[in-house]
Amino acid sequence: MNTLEVLKMGNPDLRTVCEKVTETDFGSDEFQTFLKEMVNTMREKNGVGIAAPQVGVLKRVFAMEVANNPRYPGRDSFPLVIIINPEIRILSNDTLDCWEGCLSIPGIRGQLKRAEHIELSGLDSHGNLYREQLTGFPAIVAQHEMDHLNGILFIDRMTDLKTLTFEAEFDQFWNK
């Protein structure tokens, strides 16, 4: 299975609001192959999520999965989910302080706040309605990927850039 090139910060596609996936797109063999290649790319790069614009496709779709990931050790597992035309509803005013990284900003981490409890809905890769409440790390991942579909990078959400750090320094000074 092929992997796709991950776009890096600075590429204007990462700052573009994506278009909805149409029924024509969804039903095509090409789109289904793209979904498989996007997931393969996420896994190959040790990502816990990836959004279509990160690989140059400006459509509203992302994938997420947490399974023994070396970039996020000790996180609870979360099964592979591909969400087409996702929507997120915040279910609580409670927030989490989180450290995020991004395949499009390699080698960098930063601290920000995300909603602790959300509802993620959309279509799965088979066209079935998907709706699930997420808390903790899966909620953070879903919000991060949803931001990509709206042209937002995690650094845009940081209120204090003092925690913007390279991964080696994150491991040495912040990851406790």
TrEMBL record:
EC identifiers of the protein: 3.5.1.88
Any one Pfam family match given in the protein's UniProt record, by short name: Pep_deformylase
Keywords from the named record: Hydrolase, Iron, Metal-binding, Protein biosynthesis
Enzymatic reactions: N-terminal N-formyl-L-methionyl-[peptide] + H2O = N-terminal L-methionyl-[peptide] + formate
InterPro entries associated with the record: Peptide_deformylase (IPR023635), Peptide_deformylase_sf (IPR036821)
GO molecular function: peptide deformylase activity
Domain of life: Bacteria
Cofactor needs: Fe(2+)
Active site: 145
Residues binding Fe cation, per UniProt: 102, 144, 148
Cofactor notes: Binds 1 Fe(2+) ion.
Transmembrane residue ranges: none
Summary of the function given for this chain in its UniProt record: Removes the formyl group from the N-terminal Met of newly synthesized proteins. Requires at least a dipeptide for an efficient rate of reaction. N-terminal L-methionine is a prerequisite for activity but the enzyme has broad specificity at other positions.
Family: Belongs to the polypeptide deformylase family.
Protein name: Peptide deformylase
